[in-house]
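We close this part of the discussion by returning to an individual protein. Part of our work consisted of pairing the sequence of a single chain with a tokenised description of its backbone. No coordinates are needed to read the tokens, only the vocabulary itself. The amino acid sequence and the backbone structure tokens for this protein are reproduced below:
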Amino acid sequence: MRYGNVRIAVHLATPEIKEKIIDSLPQNISLKLKKELPWLLSEISKTEKGKNGDVRERNKYRVAQSRLQNAKESIAELDRDYKKYSVEILGNYGFSKFEEDSTVQGGSVSIYQTYLFKDEYVYIFQSREEIGEKMSVESHGKQFSALLKSFRTRRMNEIPTELGVCIPLGFLPDDGRTVTDIKGTSNNWLS
């Protein structure tokens, strides 16, 4: 569903899904690659004597070099482009990203994404905002944090008494001015 410029999805969060989500965070992918660097360097050392050998040995050496180079480039890109994002809510994991986007008039976009684990569910919030005169990266982050802090879970079939928007097993207080789109949306954007 959409709530303003925020896409929201809710999934059952088995321990396996939670582990998969946490492992897929950019900062954790970078850490994993950094831990693999010594092994990749040892692979180059093992295959180095074959760099002038037959075709098979040369290929092993080139593959080892290529894997090391790809890992270093991926680490540099992840560390440069993604920043860990966390709001003072227990059980949340997230990141922010600032990117140049030629399809946007101003040319740049701020992205915040958070996985909020509550009970046996994961609530996924993603916000994209054009950065320009009306919106800075900092103000986008503050708005996103305020939205997350205002979110609360609700029981199945609970009807809140205050004004707001119900999402599956959740609630966001709202004065009725925020544009929402609740039609059956696919969660493929999460993959």
